[in-house]
């Protein structure tokens, strides 16, 4: 089983924010794989199905980004899964807009959602896909940046990145994470 989790903030107010690019990726996977993500549980909204002969759960935590670990902990307990069964998709300010970075494990890199997950799980040993949202403009703090929306110039780049994430997730399931890293970690 593979738990594929997109990170973001719940609610209409945050729907189009940079911080919710993980949710956007999950929505595209749900659409492409015909796995509706509508099962509302205590800590996550999820959908279950199969991809590449493997059972998959697509999920969005119902907690706010900084408490993402609560949603992940719930999902692992509900599906009796291990951290290595996760694939977490989230935004990254340290990457240029649209760039992807796949890792089998690693630190939180200063991302509060990942800090929460690592703290709750007690390990950094789970795969993840970071989606570049670019850094804040000079003089702008990080909070308005991540909670802000993509500009009309940025949006096509993000749409392309979300499509590449869907392809990367399929590659991870079919060919393994090393093959996906080799293919998708290249400079775009």
What does this entry look like structurally?
The chain has 188 residues and is an alpha/beta fold. It has a single domain (2-184), classed as Rossmann fold (3-Layer(aba) Sandwich). The chain has helices at 21-33, 68-78, 112-121, 142-147, 155-175, 177-184, and strands spanning 2-6, 39-40, 44-51, 54-61, 86-92, 100-103, 128-132. Strands 2-3-4-1-5-7-6 form a seven-stranded mixed beta sheet, with helices on both faces. α1 crosses α5 and α2 (68-78) packs across α3 (112-121). The mean pLDDT is 93.
SSE map:
Blueprint lengths: L1 E5 L14 H13 L5 E2 L3 E8 L2 E8 L6 H11 L7 E7 L7 E4 L8 H10 L6 E5 L9 H6 L7 H21 L1 H8 L4
Parallel strand pairs: 1-4, 1-5, 5-7
Antiparallel strand pairs: 2-3, 3-4, 6-7
Number of helices: 6
Q: Identify low-pLDDT runs.
A: none
| H and E order | EHEEEHEEHEHHH
Q: What is the CATH C level class, in words?
A: Alpha Beta
Roughly what percent helix? 25-40%
- What would you call the shape? globular
CATH architecture: 3-Layer(aba) Sandwich
Q: Can you tell me the number of structural domains?
A: 1
Strand order of the largest sheet: 2-3-4-1-5-7-6
Instruction: Tell me the CATH topology.
Output: Rossmann fold
Which structural class best describes the helix and strand composition? alpha/beta
What's the CATH H-level homologous superfamily? Peptidyl-tRNA hydrolase
- The value of Rg in angstroms is 15 Å
The average pLDDT score comes to 93
What is the first-to-last residue Cα distance?
A: 30 Å
Q: How many runs of DSSP E, i.e. beta strands?
A: 7
Major sheet attributes: 7 strands, mixed
